[in-house]
Predict the 3D structure of the following.
Amino acid sequence: MADQSSRAGERYASAQILDYAARTHHPEDRALGRAFDAPARHGMPEIQLGQAEGRLLELLLRLTQARKVVEVGTLAGYSALWIARALPSDGHLWTIEANPKHAGVAAEVIGEAGLGDRVTILRADAAEILPTLRDSGPFCAVFLDADKGRYDVYGRWATENLRSGGLLIGDNAYLFGRLLEDSDEARAMRRFHEEMAINFDSVCVPTPDGLAVGLKVAPVA
Ligand code: DHB
Ligand code: MG
């Protein structure tokens, strides 16, 4: 039966249906289109968020009235653009990208969109730079889309540096289907899930590769 299949993870989406839904609900303007196409234009890996995932990120940030956001893994700036658009004019995004070429493309994409003053691109290793960001917090949201074997480390930093009611979101939470394997990367991703479930009201939304979404709960007094 259809319902049972979809609850077991089967899906009805096709490329045509996804395209119709995206065009109907959130047609992309020139800046978003340029950002989405930037990895292909610059010979970078085409591993940016899907269009609907970008839109969902934007809506979640608006719902929580996020003002200060940290992103780990900028790539060419497509998700950063969705995040920056969700912020009020006094809001700010710090986005971390270790690859200098990718950071350069992202700076161009975000500058072209006129959002350069709302975004700081940190060209650094996330595990090294995150501790130095503490003084700019607490943050309203943290979005992870970087090296999957360190989501546990990044998730712990987020837990410590988010305000209560802040959002933690992680892309690729199914680890390309490898989440349950016996590997260091899979164990790190499972720790991310399990620690998130303790400190956040959370769900793993069944996007193609899983989008973990959590709202940080206030510590019991
Ligand atoms: C890869 C990374 C991602 O963040 C993603 O969404 C898809 C693929 C990758 O490293 O291959
Ligand atoms: Mg990803």
Notes: Residues 13-216 form a domain with the Rossmann fold fold (CATH 3.40.50.150).
